[in-house]
Write a structure and sequence with these properties.
This protein is α/β, with parallel strands linked by helices and 401 residues long. It is built from 14 helices and ten strands. The chain starts with a strand and ends in a 5-residue tail after the last strand.
């Protein structure tokens, strides 16, 4: 039987951590141990973990999740270490499923899962972002060349042998992607199984979503890709997604050209589309009168703009822009269908303009990341390190109930 040690980094996440620990207690298979690494929290996270019966490791100064996870692995005693974030809850069969993977394949180094369809925060951006993540991971089920620490397991001995997470990432970033890339480079076997799921309780706002996508994903991932000298064909950077990003920029160039030559009236079709999508976005947060009011305004303005459309509005440039947009929608048809199946067509329609924007700032992040790489290229992480950092830590020991 494969023994599993669960490692959870936490910083000021007491309410979410309690739900996370309860989900572990309700799992079909009880892990060998649960280790919570408190990253210098100022709330009651460490106390909650200790009262629950977990082993608690406390960092005296904030060091980031990479350091916290590495410290947790050093104290772990299981054959496999399961990393989960403090703001997720394991589905009851998650540990059982990952154990089956390791038991069936002795050569398997790591396996990770995805977010569940259910999102405790029903607002648009939380639904959209969680389902986008879930779709990407489930679409890539099978062999992988990356890793995800939100719900990912790895054989402890191999993790230690290859140096663990890169501790130069001082905040939640792509330290898990970097580890997976490093392991894949030397031929270690990694799998993604979308049936291994966790519910994610993080609440996204528009600005926090863009900030995370841009500064914690696009820019550092670009630097990693350039460091490795290889563009992966998986997850968010698969060939189809790169094509869609190019088509979005073609679409923007054509729309801008149309407005330049024919005036702002040429933007009417796109204004109508955006307003109708915004109305759908606001309707999703039903039950709040302010949102319903604004949704009504957006809906009426969108319908008014659509009613003004005439055949001559669709000149050759506009038709070419529509063709480019259609290409993006076609490439992502399965994603929009996925959103519609889980949240209704209002969610799918509302997601379109924000998904297009995702491609826009994704390309901007790639360019910015490339510039940063040229100016200050990151040093490669050695494949083997003799010891993971364990300084600035104190330990309280308990047993999982």
């Amino acid at each position: 039987m494969v023994s599993v040690s669960v490692v959870i980094p936490v910083r000021n996440g007491a309410p979410d951590l309690l739900r996370c620990l309860l989900s572990i207690a309700h799992s079909r298979v009880t892990p060998f141990e649960c280790i919570v690494v408190d990253d210098a929290s100022s709330d009651t996270s460490a106390q909650i973990a200790g009262d629950f019966g977990a082993t608690v490791l406390r960092l005296r100064k904030q060091s980031g999740p990479a350091v916290a996870r590495n410290l947790g692995v050093q104290s772990a005693r299981g054959d496999v270490v399961l990393f989960i974030d403090a703001d997720v809850s394991l589905l009851p069969d998650a540990i059982e499923r990952l154990i089956e993977h390791f038991a069936a394949d002795p050569d398997l180094t790591a396996v990770f899962g995805s977010y569940a369809d259910r999102c405790p925060n029903p607002d648009f951006f939380s639904l959209y972002k969680n389902l986008q993540h879930a779709f990407v991971h489930r679409s890539a089920s099978g062999a992988a060349s990356t890793f995800w620490s939100g719900c990912g397991a790895i054989r402890r001995k191999r993790f230690l042998a290859y140096g663990g997470f890169d501790e130069t990432y001082g905040r939640p970033c792509i330290e898990d992607i970097e580890l997976g890339t490093r392991l894949a480079r030397i031929g270690e076997k990694i799998r993604v199984d979308g049936a291994i799921q966790v519910e994610h309780r993080k609440q996204y706002k528009f600005l926090s979503m863009v900030r995370s996508d841009l500064f914690d994903r696009a820019i550092p991932w670009t630097q990693l890709i350039l460091r490795e000298g290889k563009m992966p064909n998986t997850l968010n950077v698969a060939n189809g997604q790169r094509t869609a990003a190019a088509l979005v920029w073609v679409f923007l160039a054509l729309v801008s050209g149309s407005a330049l030559f024919h005036g702002v009236e040429a933007l009417t079709p796109w204004a109508a589309m955006i307003l109708l999508a915004v109305a759908a976005c606001l309707i999703i947060r039903r039950g709040r009168s302010a949102n319903i009011s604004w949704a009504t305004v957006a809906l009426l303005l969108g319908l008014a703009a659509a009613s003004r459309l005439q055949l001559e509005d669709f000149d050759k440039i506009t038709l070419a822009a529509a063709a480019a947009l259609s290409g993006v929608l076609f490439i992502n048809r399965k994603f929009y269908r996925f959103l519609a199946d889980r949240g209704g067509w209002a969610l799918a329609i509302a997601a379109v303009p924000f998904h297009l924007l995702y491609y826009v700032y994704g390309v901007i992040g790639f360019v910015f990341g490339a510039v940063l790489y040229v100016v200050h290229p990151p040093a490669p992480v050695p494949i083997v390190t003799s010891k993971l950092r364990t300084s600035d830590s104190a330990t309280e020991v308990g047993a999982l109930r």
